[in-house]
């Protein structure tokens, strides 16, 4: 394939005679190579994911069997589980850190960080990121912020426990909850460092996508993965700084006596001096990031799903331009809908109307995407690789979770389900589970690219997939009922309300599913780590894909392609394209045409 | 510290395993192997499993409704609540139709078009007409929902003075609620947390003439059929006044006064006589009886039997005891309400006794 590329102008990058001597430190630790950085992101993300999921199992057990003693609490929670009974303060800490870790560390850094780094240079035909050094810095800041977050779990008064949304005054006043002492300070520092990391990464992704595309790779020939990562990075650059400003103001309110978010407070027997601030202001600032954040999480997953689904369906993605347009529409709308988290916050009800309108608009591009995915598998030749299964499940959970969003986005309906378990069920399906499916699909699919041709074991993959797919619905579908029954979230136990006694058995069912599903992830972990070393080495292009990354060398080398960078002559979705007289595929006997193949005489040029 | 050491040991162990496996790896030769790429058999098995997954999802929906349909909230106890319930019903029917159809398409396609060697996928990249259709249908349906929703919302949130609502302050603090009735003049006296002192726990301005007839209570009694306007104030952190049976909720924010108004339409007594509620309470009491037997066996005191009451819950994380911040709401006839209120001491009396 690269033969076609050789007769074109040579740039200085093509000279690859000079290989630097790499030491262990420059290769595995302070690496500036995007492939290594992506693996670092993934493995750090997986490590944080283990902590996050384990926490959810612990607090789910408390919800199902309130105030029952368990030895496992004593092991993990120590002094916060005297006699094996979970303490209410650590319950709140667990839900807070679970949310923080899963949203930021797993689904933002672990998903977007991993695959943006791996795929942007490989799929656009670049030797590396625009700035390898900035990229390395971005990872190491992420690592530092992860370390700080993990350290905060061990402080004397406990980690942050004001919920992952850290609304002040609860998060600002240590008198109001023990976790708002040192734990909260560390939380804020960790997130500030995380934001710096995320900004560096995002700027790099944007510049790389705009400037380093190989010859012929116009924006309309980009795989949808790259479109998704590119737009995600833009959203990140627009919205993360706002969270940083909110975090800085909160730090000042906490430590330097300012009153950005505090006013008229009487706590622990005394009146505070603060006057004139507003917690609602914090909510605005937080959700100005917080809402785009869920799209930062889901857009890369959507890109990954589009790409993998098309490859495994052996069919072009349906409506490429509509898919790009809907990514852009979602990205734009995502920055003007934050108020739907605040319908009952006390803001002007007129604003509620505006945000209802913009929020429900988002359903339109989302619906277009869902229908386009369904059409993509229609009349395909579906190759049921584990990655493909996760993509199909992604569409399912995205639809299910998206539909309940219509309820929550409607201000009038939100009044009664706001902050109940209905919300938990909704966002876990639509952005939690869906994004995790995108992540897992990406890992199964691009594993050979990450680990020099090794494949993950497919049978373990199937076991992992089917338990996870069934378990996820088993957890979150019944949870809608708990919410519709009126049970508020973040309750340590419901036993103080006899009215909720009939929810006990649903909660047990949910927890049992949660434990089984979490256990199934051990299968994945084993498969992942085992395959890194012992995975079967497959062909260079195992999924028969058209995109550029599969033309790169299997063995990781700095610069990705040993020879010149391949040039691109077509869009990335020429699967099962027939020749003019429709007797055979464009390349006889091969149902895909890689992007590096020039247009043939026997095919029609299509403008997608 | 021990936890930290344990983590450290685990990490070091991991590194050791990794290094050892590197040695193994170096001693092995590599060959290409397509064994982990889906074969026709995998496609077939997983295709069938996709159909079974569809069946599982439909069954999950049916079983959930059959088993847990009775945990949902009873009919709304307020005027606007039935509007919300109607909108909810319309939305839910729509969601279920769309959800069931799209899942049927997605998963039957996954089954029907499972891969086989030699099968040819159709090259189908675009169809403007189709895409237009599934852009415009959501637009129309959502336009309907948005308009319906916005009318309902505006109706609920706009409180006009002409309704002459009964003004009650809901006061939230870690971890309880107080209600302050505005008294004869239906006007609340000024208040600020800076004035909290002794028995004046809500910081009411004792010099304000409007405050003299205010009455502070631990229970919320509401007369049926009269619009109530809640003015909400927090003493410390964010709280949220959630009254699920009335489909009412509003955050309580320190430093500002938030409000929510509704008209209770069903008295507590009437609600207790609702068939759905009788059944629900019977079910809960059976569960409590079972649990009591276990408790008695363990030598602890049994649970009290349950009787239905309206509730005010805190629905915004507010601290350690967030899970137990509640107040009983009683909706009763105008006469009962007045009789109850007359028994409550007003501010002037309370402050005089001090």
From TrEMBL, chain A:
Keywords, in A-Z order: Electron transport, Heme, Iron, Membrane, Metal-binding, Respiratory chain, Transmembrane, Transmembrane helix, Transport
Membrane-crossing ranges are: 41-59, 90-120, 132-155, 186-212, 224-252, 285-306, 318-338, 350-375, 387-409, 421-447, 459-486, 506-529
Record localization: Membrane
Q: What Gene3D superfamilies does UniProt report for this protein, alphabetically?
A: Cytochrome c oxidase-like, subunit I domain
Q: Where is the Cytochrome oxidase subunit I profile domain?
A: 24-566
Has the keyword Cell membrane been applied to this entry?
no
Q: Which Gene Ontology terms cover its molecular function? A: cytochrome-c oxidase activity; heme binding
**Looking at the Swiss-Prot or TrEMBL record, what is one Pfam family this protein matches?**
COX1
GO annotation, biological process: aerobic respiration; electron transport coupled proton transport; respiratory electron transport chain
The record gives the membrane topology as:
Multi-pass membrane protein
**A GO term from the CC aspect:** membrane
- Similarity annotation: Belongs to the heme-copper respiratory oxidase family.
According to UniProt, the name of this protein is Cytochrome c oxidase subunit I
From TrEMBL, chain B:
One of this protein's Pfam families, by short name? COX2_TM
What cofactor does this protein call for?
Cu cation
Task: Name all Cytochrome oxidase subunit II copper A binding domain ranges.
Answer: 163-343
Q: Name one GO biological process term.
A: ATP synthesis coupled electron transport
What compartments host this protein? Cell membrane; Membrane
- Please classify the protein's predominant subcellular localization into one broad category: membrane
Q: What is its EC number?
A: 7.1.1.9
Q: Which parts of the chain span the membrane according to its record?
A: 6-24, 45-66, 86-111, 132-151
Class of the enzyme per the UniProt entry, highest EC level:
translocase
| One CC-aspect GO term | plasma membrane
Q: Which InterPro entries match?
A: CcO_II, CcO_II-like_C, Cupredoxin, Cyt_c_oxidase_su2_TM_dom, Cyt_c_oxidase_su2_TM_sf
What are the alphabetically sorted keywords of the record? Copper, Electron transport, Membrane, Metal-binding, Respiratory chain, Translocase, Transmembrane, Transmembrane helix, Transport
Which reactions is this enzyme annotated as catalysing?
4 Fe(II)-[cytochrome c] + O2 + 8 H(+)(in) = 4 Fe(III)-[cytochrome c] + 2 H2O + 4 H(+)(out)
Protein name per its UniProtKB record: Cytochrome c oxidase subunit 2
Query: Which residue intervals define the domain Cytochrome oxidase subunit II transmembrane region profile in the entry?
Result: 65-160
Q: How does this protein sit in the membrane?
A: Multi-pass membrane protein
Question: Which superkingdom does the taxonomy of this entry point to?
Answer: Bacteria
Family, similarity comment? Belongs to the cytochrome c oxidase subunit 2 family.
Q: Does the keyword Electron transport apply?
A: yes
SUPFAM superfamilies on file:
Cupredoxins, Cytochrome c oxidase subunit II-like, transmembrane region
An example of a GO molecular function for this protein is:
cytochrome-c oxidase activity
Role this protein plays = Subunits I and II form the functional core of the enzyme complex. Electrons originating in cytochrome c are transferred via heme a and Cu(A) to the binuclear center formed by heme a3 and Cu(B).
């Amino acid at each position: 394939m690269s033969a076609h590329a050789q007769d074109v102008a040579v740039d200085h990058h093509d000279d690859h005679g000079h290989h630097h001597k790499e030491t262990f430190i420059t290769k595995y630790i302070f690496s500036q190579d995007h492939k290594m950085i992506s693996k670092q992101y993934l493995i750090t993300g997986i490590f944080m994911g283990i902590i996050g999921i384990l926490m959810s199992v612990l607090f789910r057990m408390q919800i199902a069997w309130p105030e029952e003693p368990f030895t496992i609490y004593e092991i993990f929670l120590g002094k916060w589980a005297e006699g094996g009974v979970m303490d209410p303060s650590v319950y709140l800490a667990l839900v807070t850190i679970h949310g923080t870790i899963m949203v930021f560390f797993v689904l933002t850094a672990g998903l977007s960080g991993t695959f943006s780094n791996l795929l942007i240079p490989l799929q656009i035909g670049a030797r590396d990121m625009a700035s390898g050094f900035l990229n390395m810095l971005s990872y190491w800041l992420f690592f530092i912020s992860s370390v700080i977050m993990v350290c905060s779990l061990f402080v004397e008064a406990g980690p942050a426990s004001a919920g992952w949304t850290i609304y002040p005054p609860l998060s600002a006043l240590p008198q109001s909850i023990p976790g708002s002492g040192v734990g909260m300070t560390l939380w804020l520092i960790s997130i500030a460092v995380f934001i710096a990391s995320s900004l560096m990464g995002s700027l790099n992704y944007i510049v790389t996508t705009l400037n380093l595309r190989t010859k012929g790779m116009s924006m309309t020939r980009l795989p949808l993965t790259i479109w998704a990562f590119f737009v995600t990075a833009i959203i990140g650059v627009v919205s993360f700084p706002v969270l940083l400003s909110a975090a800085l103001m909160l730090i000042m309110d906490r430590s330097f006596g300012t009153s950005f978010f505090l006013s008229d407070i009487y706590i622990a027997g005394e009146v505070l001096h603060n006057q004139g601030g507003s917690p609602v202001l914090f909510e605005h600032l937080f959700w100005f990031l917080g809402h785009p954040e869920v799209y930062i999480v889901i857009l890369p997953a959507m890109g990954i799903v589009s790409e993998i689904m098309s490859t495994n369906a052996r069919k072009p993605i349906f409506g490429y331009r509509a898919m790009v347009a809907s990514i852009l529409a979602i990205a734009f709308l995502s920055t003007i809908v934050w108020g739907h988290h605040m319908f009952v916050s006390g803001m002007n009800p007129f604003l509620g109307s505006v945000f209802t309108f913009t929020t429900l608009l988002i359903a339109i591009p989302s619906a277009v995407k869902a229908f386009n995915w369904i059409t993509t598998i229609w009349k395909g030749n579906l190759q049921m690789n584990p990655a493909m299964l996760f993509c199909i499940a992604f569409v399912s959970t995205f639809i299910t979770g998206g539909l309940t969003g219509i309820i929550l986005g409607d201000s009038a309906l939100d009044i009664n389900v706001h902050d109940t378990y209905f919300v938990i069920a909704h966002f876990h399906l639509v952005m939690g589970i869906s994004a995790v499916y995108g992540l897992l699909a990406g890992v199964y699919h691009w594993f050979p690219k990450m680990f020099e041709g090794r494949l993950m074991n497919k049978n373990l993959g199937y076991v992992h997939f089917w338990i996870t797919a069934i378990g996820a619905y088993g957890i979150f579908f019944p949870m809608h009922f708990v919410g519709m029954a009126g049970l508020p979230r973040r309750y340590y136990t419901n036993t103080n309300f006899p009215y909720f006694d009939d929810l006990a058995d649903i909660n047990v069912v949910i927890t049992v599913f949660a434990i089984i599903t979490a256990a199934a992830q051990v299968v994945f972990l084993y498969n992942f780590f085992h395959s890194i070393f012992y995975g079967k080495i497959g062909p260079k292009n195992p999924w028969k894909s058209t995109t550029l990354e599969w033309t790169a060398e299997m063995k990781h080398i700095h610069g990705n392609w040993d020879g010149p960078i391949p040039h691109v002559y077509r869009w990335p979705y020429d699967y099962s394209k027939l020749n003019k007289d429709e007797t055979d595929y464009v390349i006889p006997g091969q149902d895909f045409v890689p992007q590096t193949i020039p247009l043939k005489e026997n095919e029609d040029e299509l403008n997608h | 510290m021990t936890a930290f050491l344990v983590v450290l040991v685990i990490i070091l162990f991991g590194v050791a395993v990794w290094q050892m496996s590197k040695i193994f790896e170096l001693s092995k030769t590599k060959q290409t192997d397509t064994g982990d790429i889906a074969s026709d058999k995998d496609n077939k098995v997983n295709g069938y499993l996709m159909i079974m997954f569809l069946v599982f999802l439909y069954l999950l929906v049916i079983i959930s409704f059959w088993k847990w349909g009775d945990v949902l909230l009873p009919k709304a106890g307020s005027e606007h609540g039935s509007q919300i319930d109607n909108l909810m019903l319309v939305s839910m029917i729509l969601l279920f139709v769309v959800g069931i159809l799209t899942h049927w398409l997605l998963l039957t396609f996954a089954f029907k078009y499972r891969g086989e060697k030699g099968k040819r996928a159709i090259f189908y990249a675009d169809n403007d007409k189709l895409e237009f259709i599934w852009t415009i249908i959501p637009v129309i349906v959502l336009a309907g929902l948005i308009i319906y929703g916005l009318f309902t919302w505006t109706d609920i949130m706009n409180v006009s003075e002409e309704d002459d609502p009964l003004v009650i302050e809901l006061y939230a603090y870690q971890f309880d609620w107080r209600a302050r009735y505005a008294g004869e003049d239906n006007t609340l006296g000024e208040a600020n947390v800076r004035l909290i002192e002794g028995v004046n726990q809500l910081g009411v301005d004792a010099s304000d003439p409007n405050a003299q007839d205010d009455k502070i209570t631990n229970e919320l009694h509401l007369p049926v059929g009269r619009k109530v306007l809640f003015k909400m104030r927090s003493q410390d952190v964010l709280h949220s006044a959630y009254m699920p049976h009335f489909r009412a909720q509003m955050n309580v924010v320190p430093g500002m006064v938030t409000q929510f108004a509704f008209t209770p339409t069903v008295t507590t007594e009437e609600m207790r006589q609702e068939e759905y509620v009788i059944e629900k309470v019977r079910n809960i009491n059976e569960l409590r009886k079972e649990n009591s037997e276990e408790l008695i066996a363990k030598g602890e005191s049994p649970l009290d039997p349950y009787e239905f009451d309206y509730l005010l819950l805190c629905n915004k994380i507010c601290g350690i005891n967030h899970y137990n911040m509640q107040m009983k709401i009683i909706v009763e006839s105008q006469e009962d309400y007045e009789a109850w209120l007359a028994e409550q001491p007003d501010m002037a009396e309370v402050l005089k006794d001090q």
